Every structure is written in structure tokens, then in C-alpha cells.
Amino acid sequence: PRHPSERANAMLRSSSLLRASRAAVRAVAARGMATKELKRTLIYDEHLKMGGNLVDFADYAMPVQYKDTPYAQSIIESTKQVREKAGLFDVSHMCSLRWRGKDAIAFVESCTVLDIENLPMGKGSLSLITNDEGGIIDDTMITKTSDDKGDHIYQVINAGCAPKDIKHFEERLGKFGGDVSMEVQWDDRGLFALQGPKAAAVLQKHVKEDLSKMGFGDAANMMVNGWPCFVARCGYTGEDGFEIFVPGAEAVPLWQLLCAESDVKPSGLGARDALRLEAGLCLYGHDIDGTTTPSEAGLTWTVSKARREPNARKFPGSDKILKQIESPKTEVKKVRVGLVPKGAPAREGAVIKTKEGEQVGVITSGAMSPTLKHNVSQGYVNKPHNKAGTELVVEVRGKSNPAVVTKMPFVPTNYYKPA
Length: 419
Prior knowledge:
Blueprint: H1 4-30, H2 44-49, E1 52-57, E2 60-66, H3 75-84, E3 86-90, E4 95-100, H4 104-109, E5 124-130, E6 136-147, E7 150-157, H5 162-176, E8 181-185, E9 189-195, H6 199-204, E10 219-224, E11 227-232, E12 241-247, H7 248-259, E13 264-267, H8 269-278, H9 294-297, H10 318-326, H11 328-331, E14 334-341, E15 351-353, E16 359-368, E17 375-382, E18 391-396, E19 399-406
Parallel strand pairs: 3-13
Antiparallel strand pairs: 1-2, 3-9, 4-7, 4-8, 5-6, 6-7, 9-12, 10-11, 11-12, 14-17, 14-19, 15-16, 15-18, 16-17, 18-19
């Protein structure tokens, strides 16, 4: 039997995690609650049937978690589900774009930091849409692919950013003048993220292609249970997984098919936020925005080496961005870091100080980690206080709590590479 103090500590951790789970629900729900009419994805009714606790997220009614049905899980349980088995996320609120025409590569490269010219067919990568000041308009997935209409670029942009992103692209298209067209695919299709170590085994039952040959970042058109889908091995959880683009008519049947699998549970925004935070990934509008540069955000790796060459095609803010990459010691004053704070979770807006009381940064995301069972946060810290192991202080509810700068990801990632 455990010592009474051990049982007490376990109970304390359990109650802390429950409070953290409820706080996560409130935090996600608070990101845009309004009385306006919300948009619905094609599987809105499925969310209701499964007990989805729906909130306003980027003007869409989206589930934070599922309650009071056989699919019910707390955010802690749902996070564990994705870490150990598989979770299915509805990410149809995100916007898909297809760029076509002989000048499509030149145009998309003129807006982003990715070397699309040399990107192999069927490969995708995270990239950034930048502004003239070197800030980040949005983070985006870009894939070079093909369909019955020919070779093209497939792109996914964040739901909350999509209206401004599309306007930005339209303005630049008006000045571009080349052979390129933008096709927007949004509310008329389903986009689902099947994530977790069991994701490949689950999907393999319904496709003929050998998924073991498909690495993280690879994408292909394939029939899923006889339905034409575009499948990319990628995700936002730190785990292995797939994002599945499915035509509108097949969206509900595909959702039902995957949720019927014994290793799969529907997952909501609460678990998604916890998973991406544990993986050290950025949430746009919180950890990155129009004022943060790739170097500050720790996203220098997204700027392809070919785009750094003197004769490379320019992208918005390239002068500042490349200068920071070349001379980080003198040009970059603050950087995004991971922190492990004691006490109450340090959430967005919490001030970071030195032990002597000097403000040196601010928290941009934070929560109790369901996997690690302790607090994790990320934020921006002025140099030289960004080094791993640096002891700092975070201000939470009027209290000064100790925090240690920590390398990210907090939980090791499990992206798949073929043998």
C-alpha cells in the first residue's frame, strides 16, 4: 500500500488535472464566444449526436470535447487516447486552396518562404506567409500534388486567418499578372485529422496503398473505403497521423466509419490544444502573429535554404528575415522558449521576470500537461535569458512562481519515417 502522503499527492495531482481540464475548456471557449450565427462543418449533426460540447472557434461551432455519450472523454482522457491509440479531429473549419497554372509555383513562392520549385511531387511542408515587415501573416501547409486537372499546389490555411489570407492573395494576384488561379475549397468538403500511434493501422484497413511506405509529409490521392480522398501524413499533435480531404457527399459516412473503429475516439479542441502545446507547436494569434519573425518564433527551419541564396526569388520581408537568420546574435532580441512553471498554470499574458524582478518576456500559451502531469508553457523571452536551464519567475494571479526555461517539445514527437 502507498504511504498516506503518496496517496495525498496523487489525489492532489488528480484534482489539479481536473481543474486544468475544466480551465482548458473555458480557455478554448473564451477564444471568441459571441452571440452571432456560427458556421457549421458538414458533420455538425454528428458532433451533436456524439455529445460534442460546441463553442465558437474561428466563427465555427466546434467541439471542445464530447460528453454524456459512449464517445465521452475528458480532455485529459482524450489527450491520452491520441498518445496511446488514435483520435479523430474535425478540422473542416480550416480552409483548403488549390493553385493551378504554369506560374502557380512562382506566385506561391512570392508569398511564402518555401522552396516549392524543388519540392518533390507528393511532398508537403509547413511554411509561413510573411508580411513586408518580416512578420507572420499565417502558418500554412503546402503540398505539391496532382489530380485529374493536372499538377498543382495544395495549401491549407488556418480558419481564423482564412478571410484575411484570401484577401491578401487576391491583392497580390491582381499585381502578379501571370498564369495562376486560386481555387477555394472550404465548407463544401470534409477535412479530418486521424492522429495517434494506431492511426496508420486503422486507415490501412480502408485503403489499398501501403501506408508503411508513406513518410510524414507525404501525400497522395487514394480511395478510402471506395471514396476518392486526398490523404496527407501530417498533423498538429506531435504524433503520427493523417489529414484526410474528403468530398462533401462522403464526409459524414467517412467520419462514422472511422469513429466505429475500436481504437478511435472523436477528439475536440481541448485535446488538440493540449497535444500541440506538449509538442511545442505554435497556435496562430497566440504564439505567432504579424509582429513575430521566423527567427524569433524558432521557425527558421521553414525558410528553405534555396530561398536564402542571393539570387533567390524574394518573398515579403525577406531582407529582414534573412538578415536575422544570418546574424541571430545581433539581430534577434527575443525568442520563443518552453518553460516549466510551478504553482498555477502560467497562461497567455502572464509576465515573465528575472529573479531580481526585471520583466524579460510574456507567456503566449500554457496549461497543465495531461501527459506529463505538470505545467508547461511557451512564451517570448529576451536574450540572454532564453537558455535552457535558466531560472525565471512568472506572475500568475498576483503570485511570483518559479519557472525554468526548457527545450521543446515537452513530449517527444513520433513522426513516422519509412524504414
